[in-house]
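Bug #77: duplicate submission created two jobs. Keeping one. Sequence:
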Amino acid sequence: MKRLVVLGAGESGVGTAVLGKQKGYEVFVSDYGSIKQKYKDVLIHHEIEWEEGNHSEDLILSADLVMKSPGISDTVKIVKALRSKGVPVISEIEFAGKYTDAKIVGITGSNGKTTTTMLCYHILKQGGLNVGIAGNIGDSFAMSVARDSFDYYVLELSSFQLDGIELFRPQIGVITNITPDHLDRYDYKFENYVEAKFRIAMNQTEADFFIYDADDEVIEAYLSDNDIQSTLVPFSLKKELDYGVYYKNESITIKIDNSEHIMPTTNLALEGKHNIKNAMAASAVAQLFNIRNLTIRESLETFQGAEHRLERVLRINKVEYINDSKATNVNATYYALESMDTPTVWIVGGEDKGNDYSQLYPFINEKVKAIICLGVDNKKLFENFGKMVDIIVETQFMSEAVKIAYKIAEAGDSVLLSPACASFDLFENYEDRGRQFKEAVRKL
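Kept job's structure:
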Protein backbone atom coordinates (compact mmCIF):
# COMPACT_ATOMS: atom_id res chain seq x y z
CA MET A 1 0.00 0.00 0.00
CA LYS A 2 1.43 3.38 -1.01
CA ARG A 3 1.89 5.98 1.70
CA LEU A 4 0.45 9.47 1.13
CA VAL A 5 1.51 12.20 3.54
CA VAL A 6 -0.48 15.43 3.60
CA LEU A 7 1.21 18.56 4.95
CA GLY A 8 -1.33 21.07 6.28
CA ALA A 9 -4.82 20.17 7.49
CA GLY A 10 -6.88 22.98 6.00
CA GLU A 11 -9.44 22.74 3.19
CA SER A 12 -7.09 21.30 0.55
CA GLY A 13 -5.21 19.04 2.98
CA VAL A 14 -8.27 17.36 4.44
CA GLY A 15 -9.86 16.99 1.00
CA THR A 16 -6.71 15.27 -0.29
CA ALA A 17 -6.61 12.98 2.75
CA VAL A 18 -10.22 11.85 2.20
CA LEU A 19 -9.67 11.27 -1.55
CA GLY A 20 -6.36 9.49 -0.85
CA LYS A 21 -8.01 7.12 1.62
CA GLN A 22 -10.81 6.46 -0.88
CA LYS A 23 -8.22 5.58 -3.55
CA GLY A 24 -6.44 3.05 -1.34
CA TYR A 25 -3.51 5.03 0.06
CA GLU A 26 -2.27 4.73 3.60
CA VAL A 27 -2.75 8.37 4.66
CA PHE A 28 -1.04 10.47 7.32
CA VAL A 29 -1.81 14.19 7.88
CA SER A 30 0.66 16.52 9.59
CA ASP A 31 0.02 20.17 10.51
CA TYR A 32 2.71 22.30 12.14
CA GLY A 33 0.01 24.57 13.57
CA SER A 34 -3.25 23.58 15.21
CA ILE A 35 -6.04 21.88 13.26
CA LYS A 36 -9.54 23.37 13.33
CA GLN A 37 -12.13 21.18 15.04
CA LYS A 38 -14.30 20.87 11.90
CA TYR A 39 -11.33 19.36 10.03
CA LYS A 40 -10.39 17.07 12.93
CA ASP A 41 -13.95 15.73 12.86
CA VAL A 42 -13.63 14.85 9.16
CA LEU A 43 -10.27 13.08 9.73
CA ILE A 44 -11.63 11.12 12.69
CA HIS A 45 -14.77 10.16 10.75
CA HIS A 46 -12.64 8.77 7.91
CA GLU A 47 -10.22 7.08 10.36
CA ILE A 48 -7.24 9.02 9.03
CA GLU A 49 -4.13 9.39 11.22
CA TRP A 50 -3.07 12.96 12.00
CA GLU A 51 -0.80 15.11 14.16
CA GLU A 52 -0.76 18.84 14.98
CA GLY A 53 1.77 21.29 16.40
CA ASN A 54 4.63 19.28 14.95
CA HIS A 55 6.07 17.59 11.84
CA SER A 56 7.37 14.10 12.83
CA GLU A 57 10.20 13.57 10.35
CA ASP A 58 10.25 9.76 10.54
CA LEU A 59 6.50 9.59 9.77
CA ILE A 60 6.74 12.12 6.94
CA LEU A 61 9.98 11.08 5.21
CA SER A 62 8.66 7.51 4.81
CA ALA A 63 6.08 8.82 2.28
CA ASP A 64 5.81 7.63 -1.33
CA LEU A 65 3.97 10.85 -2.21
CA VAL A 66 3.44 14.15 -0.40
CA MET A 67 0.69 16.73 -0.93
CA LYS A 68 1.78 20.12 0.35
CA SER A 69 -0.95 22.66 1.16
CA PRO A 70 -0.64 25.90 -0.85
CA GLY A 71 0.12 28.01 2.23
CA ILE A 72 3.35 26.11 2.95
CA SER A 73 6.46 27.54 1.31
CA ASP A 74 9.03 25.43 -0.59
CA THR A 75 11.69 26.78 1.77
CA VAL A 76 10.26 24.99 4.85
CA LYS A 77 12.76 22.50 6.32
CA ILE A 78 10.57 19.39 6.01
CA VAL A 79 9.79 20.16 2.32
CA LYS A 80 13.50 20.58 1.56
CA ALA A 81 14.21 17.26 3.31
CA LEU A 82 11.54 15.48 1.24
CA ARG A 83 12.87 16.94 -2.01
CA SER A 84 16.47 16.01 -1.25
CA LYS A 85 15.26 12.45 -0.57
CA GLY A 86 13.51 12.42 -3.96
CA VAL A 87 9.95 12.13 -2.62
CA PRO A 88 7.48 13.79 -5.03
CA VAL A 89 5.81 16.86 -3.47
CA ILE A 90 2.68 17.93 -5.35
CA SER A 91 -0.36 20.18 -4.89
CA GLU A 92 -3.92 19.09 -4.17
CA ILE A 93 -4.91 20.20 -7.70
CA GLU A 94 -2.38 17.76 -9.20
CA PHE A 95 -3.51 14.91 -6.92
CA ALA A 96 -7.26 15.39 -7.49
CA GLY A 97 -6.83 15.93 -11.24
CA LYS A 98 -5.69 12.30 -11.64
CA TYR A 99 -9.02 10.99 -10.37
CA THR A 100 -11.54 12.81 -12.55
CA ASP A 101 -12.37 12.68 -16.26
CA ALA A 102 -14.34 15.92 -16.07
CA LYS A 103 -13.57 18.73 -18.48
CA ILE A 104 -11.75 21.42 -16.52
CA VAL A 105 -11.75 25.21 -16.76
CA GLY A 106 -8.80 26.52 -14.72
CA ILE A 107 -8.87 30.23 -13.85
CA THR A 108 -5.97 32.18 -12.39
CA GLY A 109 -4.84 35.81 -12.23
CA SER A 110 -3.81 38.39 -9.66
CA ASN A 111 -7.33 39.85 -9.57
CA GLY A 112 -10.77 38.98 -10.87
CA LYS A 113 -10.27 35.24 -10.65
CA THR A 114 -12.93 34.64 -7.97
CA THR A 115 -15.56 36.73 -9.77
CA THR A 116 -14.68 35.16 -13.14
CA THR A 117 -14.80 31.65 -11.64
CA MET A 118 -18.21 32.27 -10.04
CA LEU A 119 -19.50 33.89 -13.21
CA CYS A 120 -18.31 30.97 -15.38
CA TYR A 121 -19.92 28.48 -13.01
CA HIS A 122 -23.16 30.49 -13.02
CA ILE A 123 -23.35 30.57 -16.85
CA LEU A 124 -22.46 26.88 -17.33
CA LYS A 125 -24.97 25.82 -14.66
CA GLN A 126 -27.69 28.01 -16.24
CA GLY A 127 -26.72 26.37 -19.55
CA GLY A 128 -27.67 22.98 -18.12
CA LEU A 129 -24.20 21.48 -17.65
CA ASN A 130 -23.43 19.13 -14.73
CA VAL A 131 -20.75 21.44 -13.32
CA GLY A 132 -18.87 21.82 -10.04
CA ILE A 133 -16.94 24.78 -8.61
CA ALA A 134 -13.84 24.28 -6.45
CA GLY A 135 -10.17 25.09 -5.93
CA ASN A 136 -9.34 28.31 -4.17
CA ILE A 137 -13.07 28.85 -3.60
CA GLY A 138 -15.65 26.80 -1.68
CA ASP A 139 -14.81 23.10 -1.32
CA SER A 140 -11.40 21.78 -2.21
CA PHE A 141 -11.12 20.13 -5.63
CA ALA A 142 -10.03 16.87 -3.96
CA MET A 143 -13.05 16.72 -1.63
CA SER A 144 -15.38 17.38 -4.54
CA VAL A 145 -13.77 14.62 -6.63
CA ALA A 146 -14.14 12.25 -3.65
CA ARG A 147 -17.82 13.09 -3.13
CA ASP A 148 -19.36 14.21 -6.43
CA SER A 149 -19.41 13.13 -10.06
CA PHE A 150 -19.39 16.27 -12.18
CA ASP A 151 -18.82 16.32 -15.95
CA TYR A 152 -17.28 19.82 -15.78
CA TYR A 153 -15.30 21.76 -13.19
CA VAL A 154 -14.61 25.46 -12.91
CA LEU A 155 -11.53 25.82 -10.68
CA GLU A 156 -10.12 29.00 -9.19
CA LEU A 157 -6.35 28.43 -8.99
CA SER A 158 -3.77 30.44 -7.07
CA SER A 159 -0.12 30.60 -8.13
CA PHE A 160 0.73 28.49 -5.04
CA GLN A 161 -1.61 25.73 -6.23
CA LEU A 162 -0.08 25.87 -9.72
CA ASP A 163 3.46 25.67 -8.29
CA GLY A 164 2.75 22.06 -7.31
CA ILE A 165 1.38 20.68 -10.59
CA GLU A 166 3.17 18.26 -12.91
CA LEU A 167 0.61 16.78 -15.31
CA PHE A 168 -2.55 18.76 -14.47
CA ARG A 169 -4.14 19.98 -17.70
CA PRO A 170 -7.23 22.19 -17.95
CA GLN A 171 -9.05 21.99 -21.30
CA ILE A 172 -9.60 25.73 -20.91
CA GLY A 173 -7.05 27.86 -19.06
CA VAL A 174 -7.77 31.49 -18.17
CA ILE A 175 -5.43 34.23 -16.91
CA THR A 176 -7.43 37.33 -15.98
CA ASN A 177 -4.36 39.56 -15.46
CA ILE A 178 -0.93 39.59 -13.80
CA THR A 179 0.21 42.31 -11.41
CA PRO A 180 2.80 42.08 -8.61
CA ASP A 181 1.48 39.98 -5.70
CA HIS A 182 2.87 37.40 -3.23
CA LEU A 183 6.39 38.49 -4.16
CA ASP A 184 7.52 37.41 -0.69
CA ARG A 185 7.02 33.78 -1.87
CA TYR A 186 8.87 34.32 -5.18
CA ASP A 187 12.22 35.72 -3.96
CA TYR A 188 10.85 39.22 -4.69
CA LYS A 189 11.23 38.46 -8.42
CA PHE A 190 8.16 39.37 -10.46
CA GLU A 191 9.24 37.06 -13.31
CA ASN A 192 9.05 34.04 -10.96
CA TYR A 193 5.45 34.92 -10.11
CA VAL A 194 4.61 35.37 -13.83
CA GLU A 195 6.11 31.92 -14.58
CA ALA A 196 3.95 30.42 -11.80
CA LYS A 197 0.75 31.85 -13.30
CA PHE A 198 1.61 30.54 -16.77
CA ARG A 199 1.98 26.99 -15.42
CA ILE A 200 -1.78 26.81 -16.01
CA ALA A 201 -1.01 26.32 -19.72
CA MET A 202 2.15 24.20 -19.46
CA ASN A 203 0.46 20.84 -20.19
CA GLN A 204 -2.13 22.15 -22.63
CA THR A 205 -2.22 20.70 -26.16
CA GLU A 206 -3.46 21.95 -29.51
CA ALA A 207 -6.93 20.63 -28.57
CA ASP A 208 -7.12 23.05 -25.62
CA PHE A 209 -7.81 26.79 -25.24
CA PHE A 210 -6.03 29.60 -23.40
CA ILE A 211 -8.09 32.73 -22.64
CA TYR A 212 -6.24 35.88 -21.59
CA ASP A 213 -6.41 39.67 -21.25
CA ALA A 214 -4.84 41.10 -24.41
CA ASP A 215 -4.60 44.55 -22.74
CA ASP A 216 -2.23 43.18 -20.08
CA GLU A 217 1.34 44.04 -21.07
CA VAL A 218 2.85 41.40 -18.79
CA ILE A 219 0.80 38.63 -20.42
CA GLU A 220 1.47 39.93 -23.94
CA ALA A 221 5.23 40.10 -23.27
CA TYR A 222 5.29 36.52 -21.96
CA LEU A 223 3.33 35.22 -24.97
CA SER A 224 5.67 36.93 -27.43
CA ASP A 225 8.68 35.22 -25.80
CA ASN A 226 7.18 31.78 -25.06
CA ASP A 227 5.31 29.19 -27.11
CA ILE A 228 1.96 27.95 -25.84
CA GLN A 229 0.49 24.88 -27.57
CA SER A 230 -3.19 25.68 -27.05
CA THR A 231 -5.42 27.96 -29.15
CA LEU A 232 -5.09 31.54 -27.88
CA VAL A 233 -8.38 33.34 -27.16
CA PRO A 234 -7.72 37.01 -26.27
CA PHE A 235 -10.18 39.47 -24.78
CA SER A 236 -9.80 43.25 -24.86
CA LEU A 237 -11.40 46.51 -23.77
CA LYS A 238 -9.17 48.51 -26.11
CA LYS A 239 -8.89 46.81 -29.48
CA GLU A 240 -11.13 45.08 -31.99
CA LEU A 241 -10.07 41.46 -32.45
CA ASP A 242 -10.45 39.16 -35.44
CA TYR A 243 -10.67 36.21 -33.02
CA GLY A 244 -11.65 36.45 -29.36
CA VAL A 245 -13.86 38.78 -27.33
CA TYR A 246 -13.80 42.59 -27.34
CA TYR A 247 -15.71 45.60 -26.03
CA LYS A 248 -17.00 48.34 -28.31
CA ASN A 249 -19.98 50.72 -28.24
CA GLU A 250 -21.07 49.47 -24.82
CA SER A 251 -21.33 45.91 -26.16
CA ILE A 252 -19.33 42.70 -25.89
CA THR A 253 -18.57 41.05 -29.24
CA ILE A 254 -17.69 37.34 -29.21
CA LYS A 255 -15.87 36.08 -32.32
CA ILE A 256 -15.15 32.38 -31.76
CA ASP A 257 -15.89 29.32 -33.96
CA ASN A 258 -16.48 31.37 -37.12
CA SER A 259 -19.47 33.13 -35.61
CA GLU A 260 -20.03 36.61 -34.23
CA HIS A 261 -22.34 37.48 -31.32
CA ILE A 262 -22.94 40.94 -29.88
CA MET A 263 -24.27 41.50 -26.36
CA PRO A 264 -25.10 44.90 -24.85
CA THR A 265 -23.50 45.53 -21.45
CA THR A 266 -25.98 48.14 -20.25
CA ASN A 267 -27.76 45.60 -18.02
CA LEU A 268 -24.69 43.82 -16.60
CA ALA A 269 -25.32 43.02 -12.94
CA LEU A 270 -21.74 43.95 -11.96
CA GLU A 271 -20.42 47.49 -12.39
CA GLY A 272 -16.95 48.68 -13.40
CA LYS A 273 -14.55 48.14 -16.30
CA HIS A 274 -12.82 45.26 -14.54
CA ASN A 275 -16.15 43.41 -14.42
CA ILE A 276 -16.63 43.84 -18.16
CA LYS A 277 -13.29 42.02 -18.48
CA ASN A 278 -14.48 39.27 -16.14
CA ALA A 279 -17.68 39.00 -18.20
CA MET A 280 -15.66 38.74 -21.45
CA ALA A 281 -13.49 35.92 -20.05
CA ALA A 282 -16.53 34.00 -18.79
CA SER A 283 -18.39 34.55 -22.10
CA ALA A 284 -15.45 33.08 -24.01
CA VAL A 285 -15.53 29.95 -21.82
CA ALA A 286 -19.29 29.60 -22.29
CA GLN A 287 -19.02 30.04 -26.06
CA LEU A 288 -16.33 27.31 -26.25
CA PHE A 289 -18.75 24.97 -24.46
CA ASN A 290 -21.55 25.92 -26.88
CA ILE A 291 -23.79 27.59 -24.32
CA ARG A 292 -26.64 29.50 -26.01
CA ASN A 293 -26.06 33.23 -26.36
CA LEU A 294 -29.36 34.06 -24.70
CA THR A 295 -28.27 32.01 -21.67
CA ILE A 296 -24.90 33.81 -21.53
CA ARG A 297 -26.60 37.18 -21.68
CA GLU A 298 -29.25 36.37 -19.07
CA SER A 299 -26.59 34.91 -16.76
CA LEU A 300 -24.48 38.06 -16.97
CA GLU A 301 -27.54 40.12 -16.08
CA THR A 302 -28.56 38.00 -13.05
CA PHE A 303 -25.16 37.24 -11.49
CA GLN A 304 -24.89 38.45 -7.89
CA GLY A 305 -21.11 38.72 -7.42
CA ALA A 306 -18.71 37.48 -4.77
CA GLU A 307 -18.99 38.22 -1.07
CA HIS A 308 -16.28 40.65 0.16
CA ARG A 309 -15.72 41.98 -3.36
CA LEU A 310 -17.13 45.53 -3.67
CA GLU A 311 -20.11 44.28 -1.69
CA ARG A 312 -22.58 47.02 -0.77
CA VAL A 313 -23.42 46.52 2.90
CA LEU A 314 -25.76 49.33 4.03
CA ARG A 315 -26.68 52.97 3.50
CA ILE A 316 -26.72 54.92 6.76
CA ASN A 317 -27.51 58.67 6.80
CA LYS A 318 -26.99 58.74 3.01
CA VAL A 319 -23.50 57.19 3.37
CA GLU A 320 -22.79 53.94 1.47
CA TYR A 321 -20.66 51.30 3.29
CA ILE A 322 -18.78 48.99 0.90
CA ASN A 323 -16.96 45.76 1.84
CA ASP A 324 -14.01 44.99 -0.47
CA SER A 325 -12.06 42.91 2.05
CA LYS A 326 -11.02 40.54 -0.74
CA ALA A 327 -8.75 43.29 -2.09
CA THR A 328 -5.57 41.79 -0.66
CA ASN A 329 -3.25 43.52 -3.14
CA VAL A 330 -2.77 47.01 -4.59
CA ASN A 331 -4.21 46.18 -8.00
CA ALA A 332 -7.51 45.00 -6.50
CA THR A 333 -7.76 48.23 -4.52
CA TYR A 334 -6.96 50.14 -7.73
CA TYR A 335 -10.14 48.68 -9.30
CA ALA A 336 -12.15 49.51 -6.18
CA LEU A 337 -11.03 53.15 -6.05
CA GLU A 338 -11.45 53.47 -9.82
CA SER A 339 -15.10 52.46 -9.47
CA MET A 340 -15.87 55.02 -6.70
CA ASP A 341 -17.82 58.06 -7.85
CA THR A 342 -18.36 59.75 -4.45
CA PRO A 343 -15.96 61.25 -1.88
CA THR A 344 -14.51 58.23 -0.08
CA VAL A 345 -13.37 57.42 3.45
CA TRP A 346 -10.91 54.60 2.78
CA ILE A 347 -10.03 51.87 5.30
CA VAL A 348 -6.70 50.31 4.29
CA GLY A 349 -3.87 48.24 5.72
CA GLY A 350 -2.81 44.84 7.03
CA GLU A 351 0.13 42.62 6.23
CA ASP A 352 2.10 44.34 3.46
CA LYS A 353 3.51 41.97 0.79
CA GLY A 354 6.06 44.41 -0.62
CA ASN A 355 3.38 46.78 -1.96
CA ASP A 356 4.04 49.68 -4.33
CA TYR A 357 1.23 52.15 -3.65
CA SER A 358 2.19 54.73 -6.29
CA GLN A 359 -0.46 53.58 -8.83
CA LEU A 360 -3.14 54.63 -6.29
CA TYR A 361 -1.93 58.26 -5.94
CA PRO A 362 -4.19 59.76 -8.64
CA PHE A 363 -7.28 58.25 -6.98
CA ILE A 364 -6.23 59.44 -3.51
CA ASN A 365 -5.94 63.02 -4.79
CA GLU A 366 -9.18 62.84 -6.71
CA LYS A 367 -11.55 60.75 -4.57
CA VAL A 368 -10.28 60.01 -1.04
CA LYS A 369 -11.14 62.51 1.71
CA ALA A 370 -9.81 60.51 4.69
CA ILE A 371 -7.73 57.40 5.31
CA ILE A 372 -8.11 55.00 8.24
CA CYS A 373 -5.12 52.65 8.59
CA LEU A 374 -6.09 49.28 10.04
CA GLY A 375 -2.94 47.25 10.63
CA VAL A 376 -0.30 46.32 13.18
CA ASP A 377 2.33 48.39 11.36
CA ASN A 378 1.01 51.39 9.41
CA LYS A 379 4.28 53.26 8.91
CA LYS A 380 4.46 52.64 5.16
CA LEU A 381 0.87 53.87 4.67
CA PHE A 382 1.64 57.10 6.54
CA GLU A 383 4.82 57.58 4.45
CA ASN A 384 2.87 57.09 1.21
CA PHE A 385 -0.37 58.91 1.91
CA GLY A 386 0.24 61.14 4.94
CA LYS A 387 0.68 64.32 2.90
CA MET A 388 -2.11 63.56 0.42
CA VAL A 389 -5.16 63.76 2.70
CA ASP A 390 -6.21 66.04 5.55
CA ILE A 391 -7.26 63.19 7.81
CA ILE A 392 -5.20 60.01 8.31
CA VAL A 393 -5.61 57.97 11.49
CA GLU A 394 -4.73 54.47 12.63
CA THR A 395 -6.41 51.77 14.71
CA GLN A 396 -6.10 48.05 15.30
CA PHE A 397 -9.78 47.33 15.79
CA MET A 398 -12.38 47.01 13.03
CA SER A 399 -15.17 48.31 15.30
CA GLU A 400 -13.15 51.47 15.98
CA ALA A 401 -12.25 51.93 12.30
CA VAL A 402 -15.95 51.86 11.39
CA LYS A 403 -16.88 54.28 14.20
CA ILE A 404 -14.19 56.74 13.04
CA ALA A 405 -15.44 56.43 9.45
CA TYR A 406 -19.00 57.09 10.65
CA LYS A 407 -17.88 60.33 12.32
CA ILE A 408 -15.93 61.56 9.27
CA ALA A 409 -18.36 60.62 6.47
CA GLU A 410 -21.04 63.08 5.39
CA ALA A 411 -24.22 62.59 3.34
CA GLY A 412 -23.27 61.58 -0.20
CA ASP A 413 -19.93 60.01 0.83
CA SER A 414 -18.88 56.36 0.78
CA VAL A 415 -16.92 54.32 3.31
CA LEU A 416 -14.78 51.73 1.52
CA LEU A 417 -12.94 48.84 3.17
CA SER A 418 -10.35 47.92 0.51
CA PRO A 419 -7.21 46.94 2.40
CA ALA A 420 -4.64 46.32 -0.42
CA CYS A 421 -2.93 43.99 2.08
CA ALA A 422 -3.22 40.49 3.51
CA SER A 423 -5.33 40.16 6.65
CA PHE A 424 -3.22 37.88 8.83
CA ASP A 425 -1.82 40.55 11.17
CA LEU A 426 -5.19 41.26 12.83
CA PHE A 427 -7.68 38.77 11.35
CA GLU A 428 -7.99 35.08 10.62
CA ASN A 429 -8.42 35.72 6.87
CA TYR A 430 -10.02 38.24 4.51
CA GLU A 431 -13.47 36.68 5.08
CA ASP A 432 -13.14 37.25 8.83
CA ARG A 433 -12.04 40.85 8.14
CA GLY A 434 -15.03 41.43 5.83
CA ARG A 435 -17.51 39.87 8.23
CA GLN A 436 -16.22 42.01 11.11
CA PHE A 437 -16.63 45.10 8.93
CA LYS A 438 -20.22 44.19 8.07
CA GLU A 439 -21.01 43.43 11.71
CA ALA A 440 -19.55 46.77 12.85
CA VAL A 441 -21.54 48.66 10.19
CA ARG A 442 -24.78 46.96 11.23
CA LYS A 443 -24.14 47.98 14.85
CA LEU A 444 -23.84 51.70 14.02
